[in-house]
Write a structure and sequence with these properties.
The chain is an all-alpha fold and 268 residues long. The protein has a two-stranded antiparallel sheet. β1 and β2 form a beta hairpin. The protein is globular and about 60 Å long. The model has no long low-confidence stretch (mean pLDDT 86).
Length: 268
Amino acid sequence: MKRRIITGLVALPIAVIPLLLGHAILIGLIFIVSIIGLYEFYKAYNIRSTFLKAMGYVLSIIYYYYIVFEGLIAFQVMFGAYILILLAYYVITYPKYDLKEIAIVCFGYIYIPYLLSHVALIRIEPKYGAWFVWLIFIVAFGSDTCAYFTGRLFGKRKLAKQLSPNKTVEGAIGGVIGSVLLCVLFGIILMSMGKFNNDSPILILLSIIGLVGSVLSQIGDLAASAIKRQVGIKDFGNLLPGHGGLLDRLDSILFTAPFIYYIMQFFI
């Protein structure tokens, strides 16, 4: 626990300052984190081909370039070309590589750089992005913290014994309740600052974000646990002492960030 706290205190300003400054600095940080996460993911699955791994990194570079300079619609054409290149490589090198290895490379891009990019996409939204980006961490880390302490105090029934023996149903419920309360509190703070009117339905919307976001956050955590159990590892890496690898800390954010982004797009 001591190592986890020290690592958290060191990492906090590294994460908070780019979130406050936004745009280019934040996108740069998210890109670096994505590449490290992708490296941990490929290492976990023991991807042998240097070319395949390089293609994953190259696609991430191109994707973030399009976020900054071109827009995401133009990226669809590039992604189609990327798939064709991977399949051509599969044919040329056949039967050296299994199609599963190529599928894992593609999934790694979707799972990490693409999902994580929604943190930056939320932040660069001109009207509410600077505020709503904090909801990602309020939901993900708030849910995780409340679930942990609720589980320690009241946990009896196992939530997913094969994936994560320490998680309980009571802890999961506590995580959801805590997430909802934190989101509502965040909404009250925004209203007191004049960001929303008192008759605005923002508190109802934030309650929904807290509830659904907490469920998605916990699913993201369990999904990462399933991957680690499948490949036979305890952590994705050891970059963060006491926490494991970056992916071990990002697993819940990967699921909550896209959800909050699309809530913003369709309802705010």
